[in-house]
């Protein structure tokens, strides 16, 4: 039920820092709650799906929000 992933924008200098910033910004945004995590020494986004009613659309929404906010952060 726990999934870790990274947002990797084109030309990113520091993907780990970007993902930590992205996790914090997603928490501020409030549409999705997830937390940063470290896996094999790299920062990632950690989401945990615990509701048995979770749908494909719900999972897709998490990814869409991560892309939207991640692109905005990458553009400055």
Ordered list of secondary-structure elements with their pairings:
Elements: E1 2-5, H1 15-29, E2 35-39, E3 42-48, H2 56-75
Antiparallel strand pairs: 1-3, 2-3
Helix pairs in contact: 1-2
Descriptive report:
The protein has 76 residues and is of the alpha+beta class. Helices cover 46% and strands 21% of the residues. A 3-stranded antiparallel sheet has the order 1-3-2, with helices on one face. The longest helix is centred in the C-terminal third of the chain and has 20 residues. The chain is globular. The protein starts with a strand and ends with a helix. 18% of the residues are buried.
Largest sheet, strands/sense/barrel? 3 strands, antiparallel
Number of strands: 3
Write down the Rg.
12 Å
Order of helices and strands: EHEEH
What is the topology, as strand order, of the major beta sheet? Answer: 1-3-2
Mean pLDDT: 95
- In whole angstroms, how far apart are the ends? 32 Å
Helix content: 40-55%
Structural class given helices, strands, pairing? alpha+beta
Oligomer class: single chain
Low-pLDDT parts are none
> So how many helices?
2
Outline, from the CA principal axes?
globular
Q: Kindly estimate the percentage of residues that lie in beta strands according to DSSP.
A: 15-25%
């Amino acid at each position: 039920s726990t999934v870790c992933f990274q947002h990797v924008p084109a030309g990113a200098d520091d993907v780990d820092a970007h993902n930590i910033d992205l996790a914090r910004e997603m928490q501020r945004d409030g549409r999705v709650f997830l937390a940063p995590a470290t896996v094999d020494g790299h920062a990632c986004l950690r989401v945990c799906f615990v509701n048995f009613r979770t749908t494909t659309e719900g999972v897709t929404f998490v990814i869409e929000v991560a892309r939207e906010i991640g692109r905005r952060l990458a553009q400055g």
